[in-house]
Amino acid sequence: MRYGVASPPANPKAQVLILADPAYPAEVYFQAAQQLLDAGYGVWLLEAPGQGGAGRYLLQGEAVFTPDYRDAQTAARAFIADIVKPDPGKPLIVVGTGYSAIHALSLSMALKDPNVLGYVAYDPYLGGPIARGQVWHANEPPGTYWGDIAQTWQSANPSLRLRVKSDVWQKQMNRAYEALDGLHIPTLGEAVSPSVLLLEPKTGLTADANAASKLCAHVAHCVMAPGDGPQTLGTAVASFVDEVLPKAK
After folding, report:
1. Taking the CA atoms of the chain, what radius of gyration do you get in angstroms?
2. I want to staple 44 with a disulfide (CB 3.0 to 4.6 A). Which of 17, 19, 144, 202 is the partner?
């Protein structure tokens, strides 16, 4: 497990925890983090165990690995309770992108902390087959916005180069999606009712939009909105934070 933290010059009004997508190293979120810092929010970045860096499972080789999809969610819950420690003066919003968006949505249903005010799922994994990926090569940039940022960091730091997704990880990620997709909205109680924002994938495909809408329908207090792409993720999250923060009387 790997994490980082940054705070704005002034006392932050709230904190944002970004759960890194296993498809990228956490460094790709530095732009989003800066946008949140500029808005006055503290930022935490968390890579779950098995996603690279220093926090790898033994004998996983050069592939993303987890023995159980719940490990990522358990790690996030422990990190929030033991490290972030949100309180009424510095509440928390949790953000997940891609595969980790599934973990963020799952946590919104299970983590009953009144100081966690909301969750954002950006371009979530929508089930189905997962590409295994290929071993990292210096002369093969992915050609996507976050992928090319990752390529730059991976060129300088070999420990960030995990691109292959192990068969076990693929199976567990499918299980994570199926577990969330199979939920019926529970009664969370009035004491804990976090807001949830699902930013739609920008594929232009009706099937993806329908799948995202169906997924959101399984999550309490979930609403959908169009996403403008990774370049403005931090700005979109900052706007959401502004909405969910209690208004001064």
Report:
1. 17
2. 17
